[in-house]
Design a protein that fits this description.
Distance between the termini: 42 Å
CATH topology: 434 Repressor (Amino-terminal Domain)
Largest sheet: none
Number of domains: 1
CATH superfamily: lambda repressor-like DNA-binding domains
Order of helices and strands: HHHHH
Structural class: mainly alpha
CATH class: Mainly Alpha
Strand content: under 5%
Number of helices: 5
């Protein structure tokens, strides 16, 4: 990892947030792109897909049009099922918890310290 100007390589201005440790996305959920490719192969219209999936046509339009950035799991499951796919979790590899937990805690601590430096909290009166 490249050290950034803030010194610790973690935080808002570092290019890497703590939240991105397990989930990496640019400006929207990458699953949207995956589902859009599947949908385009099926040669279905937005309204037809929405009717088959039991979601609103605006849901499909907004998801594939870029307005919706983080669709709910249920939306993915319904749209996948409408096209004949199962949307499920599959374990790629078993994590080494003993090695990963200390790293994750250190990253989280650095992230919280960065937040504390950036914006002091107001006290409630």
């Amino acid at each position: 990892m490249v050290k950034r100007a803030n010194g610790n390589g973690v935080g808002h201005n570092s290019g890497r947030l703590w939240l991105q440790r397990a989930y990496n996305s640019v400006d929207h959920d990458p699953e949207i792109d995956r589902f859009q490719k599947l949908w385009q192969r099926e040669n279905l219209g937005e309204t037809d897909l929405a009717v088959l999936a039991g979601v609103g046509s605006a849901t499909v339009r907004n998801m594939f049009g870029g307005k919706t950035r983080r669709p709910q799991h249920t939306t993915f499951a319904k749209i996948g099922a409408a096209m004949g796919y199962r949307y499920k979790l599959e374990r790629a590899e078993a994590p080494d918890y003993e090695a990963e937990i200390p790293k994750a805690r250190a990253e989280f601590k650095a992230y919280r310290e960065t937040l504390a430096k950036k914006k002091p909290r107001r006290r409630k009166k």
